[in-house]
User: Which sequence fits this backbone?
C-alpha cells in the first residue's frame, strides 16, 4: 500500500480548490480595488488636462518658437514665428535668399483652441524681467518690408537671437493668449531664452512661470 496516498489526495483537493476559485473570476474586493486605482489615476489626470485651452496653445507657441530659432541657426538665415491675430493662427517662416528673396512657410497654420484669442485682456503689465510694457510682438513685415496689419512676429537671426526690424537684439518679443479668465504668455529674452507664463485675467497680474 502507498503511504503517500493521503498527502497526494490532499494536494489534489488543494489544486482543485485553486482551479475552482480561479475559474470564478475576480472577487468583489478585487474589482473594488481596481476601480479605486482607476479613480485615483483619473483624479491625477484631470488637473493636467485643465480647462484652459490656452495652456496647450502657449506650449504650441513655445514649440513653434523653438523650431524657428533652430531653423534660423541651422540655415544661417532669419526665421520667424508668424502670428495672425485675427485668424487666430500661427506658423513658422524661413527667409529664403532666392530671386527675389522671400519668406517661405515651413509648416501649415496652427489654429488656437476654440474660445481662445491672441490678447491679454485687462492685464496691465508683462511677466517680470521681460518687456518694458505689455504688448504683442511687433507686426510682421512682408517680403519688401511693409507692415502687415493684424499680425505679430518674433524674428530670430542666424545665431538664434531675437531681433527687431533693424536687426538689433530685442526684449520686446512676447505673444499673449487668453480665454477671458486666464492669460498665457510666451516670452523671448534677448539671449533667445523662451519662457511660458500664466496669470489670471486681472489688471494686476500674478505671473507664474511654467
Assistant:
Amino acid at each position: 500500500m502507498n503511504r503517500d496516498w493521503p498527502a497526494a489526495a490532499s494536494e489534489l483537493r488543494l489544486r482543485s480548490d485553486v482551479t475552482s476559485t480561479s475559474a470564478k473570476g475576480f472577487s468583489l474586493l478585487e474589482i473594488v480595488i481596481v476601480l479605486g486605482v482607476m479613480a485615483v489615476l483619473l483624479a491625477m489626470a484631470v488637473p493636467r488636462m485643465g480647462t484652459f485651452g490656452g495652456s496647450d496653445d502657449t506650449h504650441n507657441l513655445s514649440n513653434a518658437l523653438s523650431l524657428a530659432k533652430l531653423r534660423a541657426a541651422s540655415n544661417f538665415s532669419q526665421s520667424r514665428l508668424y502670428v495672425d491675430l485675427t485668424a487666430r493662427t500661427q506658423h513658422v517662416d524661413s527667409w529664403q535668399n532666392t530671386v527675389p528673396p522671400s519668406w517661405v512657410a515651413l509648416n501649415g497654420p496652427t489654429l488656437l483652441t476654440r474660445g481662445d484669442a491672441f490678447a491679454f485682456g485687462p492685464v496691465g503689465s508683462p511677466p517680470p524681467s521681460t518687456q518694458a510694457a505689455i504688448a504683442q510682438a511687433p507686426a510682421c513685415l512682408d517680403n519688401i518690408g511693409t507692415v502687415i496689419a493684424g499680425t505679430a512676429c518674433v524674428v530670430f537671426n542666424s545665431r538664434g537671437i531675437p531681433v527687431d526690424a533693424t536687426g538689433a537684439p530685442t526684449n520686446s518679443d512676447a505673444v499673449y493668449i487668453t480665454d477671458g479668465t486666464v492669460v498665457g504668455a510666451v516670452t523671448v529674452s534677448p539671449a533667445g531664452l523662451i519662457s511660458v507664463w500664466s496669470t489670471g485675467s486681472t489688471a494686476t497680474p500674478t505671473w507664474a512661470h511654467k
In short: The beta strands are 79-84, 89-96, 102-105, 110-111, 151-156, 162-163, 174-178, 182-188, 194-200, 208-209. The helical segments are 5-23, 28-49, 54-75.
